[in-house]
Amino acid sequence: xxxxxxxxxxxxxxxxxxxxxRLLLTTANEYKRMKYAGTPHRIHEGKxxxxxxxxxxxxxxxxxxxxANDLGIAPEYxxxxxxxxxKKETVEDTAKVLGRMFDGIxxxxxxxxxxxxxxxxxxxxxxxxxxDKFHPTQILADFMTIEEHLGRLHGVxxxxxxDGRNNMANSLLLGSAIMGLDFRILAPRELFPEEGxxxxxxxxxxxNHGRITITDNFEEALRGADVIYTDVWVSMGEEDKFAExxxxxxxxxxxxxxxxxxxxxxxxxxxxxxxxxxxxTTTGQHIxxxxxxxxxxxxxxxxxxxxxxxFDQAENRMxxxxxxxxxxx
Length: 329
Ligand code: CP
Ligand code: NVA
Fold this sequence. Notes:
It is a single chain. This protein is an alpha/beta fold. It folds into two domains: about 15-135 and about 315-329, Aspartate/ornithine carbamoyltransferase (Rossmann fold); about 155-225 and about 225-265 and about 270-305, Rossmann fold (3-Layer(aba) Sandwich). Helices cover about 45% and strands about 15% of the residues. It has 13 helices and nine strands. A five-stranded parallel β-sheet has the order 7-6-5-8-9. Strands 2-1-3-4 form a four-stranded parallel β-sheet, with helices on both faces. β1 (about 50-55), α2 (about 60-70) and β2 (about 75-80) form a beta-alpha-beta unit. It is globular and about 55 Å long. It starts with 17 loop residues before the first helix and ends with a helix. Bound molecules: phosphoric acid mono(formamide)ester and norvaline. The site of phosphoric acid mono(formamide)ester (CP) has 8 residues, from α2.
């Protein structure tokens, strides 16, 4: 059963029940239809929200901005050098000040504790736009996209390949356990998620008739997969780890051979983006020059193939974030 989400913060998927997440997905679908039909939905006219970014962003920043404008809300972007947060003023004091002026606060940054402290002291809803530990709004977009393509979520065989202990793996793990997916992480053992989180996910999956598998066995993870999901091998804030991660994950690249291992020619490919699928970016060029790789976590062929639904995912960031803002304000 979903309850009203008014006044609630969204720091991890664990803040919501399966019913709440279903309500958010249904609402996102309604907003997508309204957007396509050109039906105005300025239900929060006159409100203001703050968008705090310690790390860079394309999708999350734009999704919050467009969603806010569509709902009649004024968004204010505050980058890492724009405010005193953490440098001249504590998170607690900043939260209290922003909470007096804004109706809601989005935060993207490093320590997960920062977003927790903001939520504790702001007195208005706080939304996690990514921390080192979790990226929950991304998972709503991913689930919406999976349902659009497969027509269901429960029981879907979703495999996350790569850095199995990063914010995306952690969030997919929690979200899948709550929504009852057959979720698998395929990673080298040294990149398995924290035991405490895995234990919690097993309990949730049990309650929700889902399944969780953490493995370094390709056959076990990939057999019969409906979706293969990957993410960058080096997350924001870990830029000194390229050599180590390439060494650990070289054999975990999503390529045509990996897709074939699923035995499912229709298997979908997903990625939260940005993706290193070619050497056309400055970082991509460095990787090619230093490590001899044309691509990292996914080949250009798979990224551009009909199996790939990555740009549907990116668009759905906006519709799902709109649902989060609309229901929690
Ligand atoms: N997927 C995602 O969060 O993208 P950005 O880093 O561009 O916001
Ligand atoms: N794991 C990635 C996700 C980017 C959306 C990072 O934190 O950089």
